[in-house]
């Protein structure tokens, strides 16, 4: 603009910012009032000089002492409010980000981990059943003489194999007696210098020597439990004496009930009257340690108390009063991450959170506690150890291996754990292998279906299995997990519903056929067996 409205050109205003080049250009021919206009359009021939704009002091000197530019207007109240609001939000976001990072680091630094090599899973979660070994060690390291046997590296004093079903509808907590005579396999253990040392296995020794003795780590206990039960262990969680005290205190105490007065003067020091109690801290620890004043005074009776305590602790931890109270939740998270030692597969806050979220859908009422069936060791005159009680133990292990619940539960309908078997890729007809059985009661149904499959649908790798052992109301297709694409193709041809498909648990051999059993709903080959969809209202 002109200087003070006198028609004089302000030399500073002859410098114009060109957005095309990012520089200031001197325009000597710009008329007054247009010197601060936008830069010349591309191609415009205007004399330019690439140089920085003159300083304000130089401009004022050129204009003279009486020449003054109008002061920059102050931002309006609305503008100031917007600036303060934006700044406040930005500060809050930075503060939250820093706070969240510090919280994450705080809990992450609490966690102790052990690298168990190939004994566990590297993934925190799985789509199938999950097995977690919960170990309570009686290590006295760092605890002084308060609990006796000062400095002991400890044993696998309490071991519970926590099996969670594939559909997350139920879980089985299987206690393994510490005095069970079993075999401990060779155990590769990671040393402090990063090397691996294989600790030789032992035959006919107590289960609890699988941890701590001869330098064995929790990975050795995992391998021992796998060899004993036939179940693949995914992860372990190990807790010491302090974990019981601190966790029980963090949730505000754990409800327990005893059938008679307990006065354990020779062991844990627990003293409780008959009936209901809320225990925490040292009293909670004494409760899970006591055995001399319950039952026959042995470890099997103590296991019952431990199962009661753990069941109650789980219910308390999942209660709304704990999970909705920020102070309790912080304390619980802080105590849990400090108290637990876990494998590297779940050795971070993120992985533990993923695992907790995956298992959180299991209702506490559907968690069944059981103990591995055992009998007194017949090789001992004075019984101090136990051995497996077969065939009861074998049957129990097979039930858990088959992912069968020990209590009657209704499977959960979950999109993540129970997808529609009809959804997914379909095999080519030539790759479908199926054996057709006739359970419909109609003579020749299997052969008629076989002819239709081979001659019309191109399923040449099909066979006639004859009559089924009995008649069925509904047609079924039994297949292995690695035959799912074949099952979907056959279901599409036959018009089978999802309920007609029965998937097994074990993969089939490469050339093994599926089994199609025709039921009373079968009428004619090629006619859909599932009802047509209901008509949609216009």
Describe this structure in words.
The protein has 538 residues and is an alpha/beta fold. Helix content is 28%, strand content 21%. The protein is built from twelve helices and 26 strands. Helix 5 (282-289) crosses helix 6. The radius of gyration is 38 Å and the shape is elongated. The two termini are 71 Å apart. The model is unreliable at 1-12, 30-51, 59-67, 147-152 and 531-538 (pLDDT under 50). Residues 56-65 have a biased composition (Low complexity).
Task: Summarize the structure in short.
Residues 155-319 form the Cell envelope-related transcriptional attenuator domain. The chain is an alpha/beta fold. 28% of the residues lie in helices and 21% in strands.
* Quantity of strands, as a count: 26
**Count of individual helical segments:** 12
Largest sheet: 7 strands, mixed
Low-confidence stretches: 1-12, 30-51, 59-67, 147-152, 531-538
Radius of gyration: 38 Å
Main β-sheet, spatial strand arrangement: 5-18-13-6-7-8-19
Query: What overall geometry do the principal axes of the alpha carbons give?
Result: elongated
Helix content: 25-40%
The rounded distance between the terminal residues' Cα atoms is: 71 Å
Structural class: alpha/beta
Strand content: 15-25%
Q: Return the average pLDDT rounded to an integer.
A: 78
Family: Belongs to the LytR/CpsA/Psr (LCP) family.
Keywords: Membrane, Transmembrane, Transmembrane helix
Pfam family, one: LytR_C
Protein name: LCP family protein
